[in-house]
Design brief:
Number of strands: 22
Strand content: 15-25%
Oligomer: single chain
Number of domains: 2
Number of helices: 16
Strand order of the largest sheet: 1-12-7-2-3-4-13-21
Radius of gyration: 24 Å
CATH topology of the largest domain: Aminopeptidase
Length: about 525
């Protein structure tokens, strides 16, 4: 990571208290108060047209990251000359140096539980697609609990987790390694966070099949600070129904109303008592960003150097951007972001499930990639790029011996699947057998075969995550085909690596909930 110009980096001591990847999480009563937005200040940066004089003042204190350098070489290629910006809201009750925020501030102002339970999950991910021709800007919110293949910055697989955990998994792994090597304090924190950023960027690129050109990251404190900027007072929100929630502290009537910074945080955090839960909370994030940009434009902030300096005085200390982002050049491409031409959409999921003892949202990767590609202007007629080829070919088979048992009730199913797996490069025993008929296909594995098991399970589209079993020999994967098994052609790619197919027409019904359009004060649940 490049040295952050404001001196931010970290003063963490010892090992980070990693949350276990399996097992039960912190009780909902505790985690319900976690903020999921924290991206308003990043959006403000992205939507500001600034003068050269302001640029030099602003640029001198920004915290920058080189995380894109690590993931750029493996990124899918562009379909056109557009710009893709990823907004990252970090779920952390720590400041830019890795220190816990004051307990009283977290509990009284953020209404977000204890500083001790804050960690490095990315509870907000919004990809903004800014066309080169000045057309409509598309913003895609990625649900934080999407269960996907997560990656490290070097392209290695972490495994299947919630997409928000890519950052924290990489942060913890890098921190433990560096701590063992003797690294401490600000360098330890900075390099650990850089690993988290790289993992988030790599995971989103692989999930959506599109490149990321720039990114901006901000934490809970950043959201609170931006909501306190005088130019934003009073902040306006609009609700379709009255709400009252003791977890987040939300207590609002229906209709258009003004709120302070503490209330604004409650507005974007609430999910209890809402029919759509996390979906409604995502729409509130989108609506708040729209309200902020509308307010700043109506107040003439973008045309006043003194107002801009006051605004960026807050943004600079709470924000991390990629080192290649030139504020002026980007602002020239992003003028539509304050013109009411931004449409926020939430990517769809396929229902809730339990994986690794956690509640997750299942996703159809091909469907999501197809929707994103269609909205980016790359339909089936587009010529494939090097990045697309990577996704259309199956991943290299991980080392393991795969055994297939037939519990589907269909004669020859195990032999068919064994032949297909062998064609993909997996070692097979060459023999199959029948077992008791079961409804669902399952995958279990022995020591050292987790990656292969995950690949095979992804190919088969199993509803249950692969599980380890002491009854399976080391280095082996055991597949039991169920009645839900559908044979695939030999050598066909796994579901997670198949080429995206763009729908002929994309409508709001293809996404999760209604779209939120920027340019005013949207009214949401």
């Amino acid at each position: 990571m490049r040295e952050e110009r404001s001196g931010a980096g970290g003063h963490g001591h010892g090992r980070a208290k990693a949350r276990p990847r399996g097992g039960k999480r912190v009780p909902r009563l505790v985690i319900a108060g976690r903020a999921v937005v924290g991206v308003a200040s990043a959006a403000v940066l992205a939507t500001s047209g600034v003068s050269w004089a302001a640029y030099h003042w602003i640029e001198g204190g920004l915290n920058t990251s080189d995380a894109l350098d690590a993931v750029g070489k493996n990124a899918p290629k562009h379909l056109d000359n557009s710009v893709n910006l990823l907004l990252i809201g970090l779920d952390s009750r720590k400041d830019m140096n890795g220190n816990d925020l004051p307990k009283e501030f977290v509990q009284d102002q953020l209404h977000a539980g204890s500083s001790d339970i804050g960690y490095y999950n990315t509870n907000t991910l919004i990809l903004m697609h800014i066309p080169a021709d000045g057309g409509k800007v598309q913003a895609f919110s990625i649900p934080r609990d999407d269960y996907v293949q997560t990656f490290n910055g070097d392209g290695s697989e972490q495994g299947h987790y919630k997409i928000k955990e890519a950052y924290s998994n990489a942060y913890t792994g890098r921190r433990e390694k560096l701590y063992a090597e003797g690294l401490r304090d600000d360098k330890l924190e900075a390099q650990s966070r850089e690993a988290g950023r790289e993992a988030t960027l790599a995971t989103v690129q692989n999930f959506l099949g599109v490149p990321i050109d720039h990114f901006a990251e901000v934490n809970l404190l950043g959201f609170y600070d931006i909501a306190n900027v005088p130019a934003l007072q009073p902040i306006q929100i609009c609700l379709k129904h009255p709400v009252k929630d003791r977890y987040s502290g939300a207590d609002f009537r229906a209709g258009l109303q003004t709120v302070n910074a503490k209330q604004a945080l409650a507005f974007v955090r609430q999910r209890h008592g809402l029919d759509g839960g996390d979906l409604d909370r995502t729409h509130r994030q989108q609506a708040f960003i729209s309200s902020v940009t509308h307010k700043l434009k109506s107040q003439g902030v973008f045309d006043s150097l003194s107002k801009l300096q006051g605004l960026f005085g807050v943004v600079k200390k709470d924000l991390v951007i990629d080192s290649k982002l030139n504020v002026i050049d980007f602002a020239q491409q992003a003028t539509n972001l304050t013109g009411g031409k931004v449409e926020f959409r939430t990517l769809p999921t396929e229902g809730s499930a339990t994986r690794n003892n956690e509640d997750v949202e299942l996703v159809d990767v091909d469907k999501v990639r197809g929707l994103v590609r269609a909205e980016f202007g790359g339909g089936p007629s587009s010529s494939p790029s090097a990045g697309d080829d990577k996704h259309s070919a199956p991943a290299k088979a991980a080392p393991a011996t795969v055994d297939v048992l037939n519990g589907s009730g269909r004669t020859g199913a195990a032999a068919e699947e064994l032949k297909s797996l062998a064609a993909l490069g997996y070692t097979t025993s060459g023999t199959t057998s029948n077992t008791a008929t079961q409804a669902r296909t399952t995958v279990v594995y022995g020591k050292g075969a987790q990656t292969a098991a995950q690949q095979v399970a992804s190919r088969l589209g199993t509803t249950a995550a692969p599980a380890t079993s002491p009854e399976v020999p080391d280095g082996h994967v055991q597949v039991v085909l169920g009645e839900d098994f559908t044979a695939s052609p030999a050598g066909s790619p796994s579901p997670s690596s198949a080429p995206p197919s763009s729908p002929a027409h994309v409508s709001d019904s293809d996404f999760a909930g209604e779209s939120v359009k920027e340019g005013g004060i949207p009214c949401v649940n």
